[in-house]
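Work Package 3 (structural annotation) set out to generate three-dimensional models for the target panel prioritized at the project kickoff. During this period the team completed the workflow that converts sequence records into discrete structure tokens, so that structures can be stored uniformly alongside our sequence database. As a representative example, we reproduce one entry of 255 residues exactly as it appears in the project archive.
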Amino acid sequence: MNPEYIQNLLKKLYNRKITPQKALDHLKTLPFEDLGFAHLDHHRQLRTGMPEVIYCEGKAPDQILQIIKKLHQGGSDILATRLDPELYKKIKSRLPKKTVYNSQGRTLVLKKKPSSKKLGNITLVTAGTSDIPVAEEAVVTAEYLGSHVDKIFDVGVAGIHRLLDKIDRLRAARVLIVVAGMDGALVSVVGGLVDKPVIAVPTSVGYGASFNGLSALLTMLNSCAAGVGTVNIDNGFGAGCLAHRINILGEPPEI
């Protein structure tokens, strides 16, 4: 339930197009709705600017479908993360036609009114092609929230000339997301080239001593570059949310 939904409801009530009882029926799920296996937070977008997001790992297909249905009925746009392609195949035929699935990022998006206007500029950089699935989760999240994202893939430090060739695009960003596994060194290099906030995302990509992303995480936490903040291993969603919030600082609020 977003501010636009509430405004439209109040306008209809004010213009006597609906009865007070009908308006109450629309609002009765605030602040949450109990489904037995989940408590849906319909009030979250009013509080935080973004609706509740569905984390799909560990959920049954029918649970995911019911959550999508109820959130959609409540006026929310839908973002589902960590939706495995095989699980998506099981529910695809029962989803609305406007649903968009990203198989690499394992994300699902359903928007009531897709917006063609994207705000600001987030630049996302990956060290390698194997980091793209985590990067795509970040991209889909930020774009779903309304940010413009410029993607630069496979420019890790083993061939640093590839990164330096993109220096103008790096410096044009309001905020940057750097996604890297293995040694995680790319974030310090990018942080030393720009004067904008850098969000580091360690991935679980790498051989044995990378410890499923722990090596990259520790490298990023110990970065010598100023202005770098680090999210959890493989947390593209968290990076996308944080980048969006930084990106829209100073933008006039939508009315």
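Residues 68 and 78 are 7 Å apart (CA to CA).
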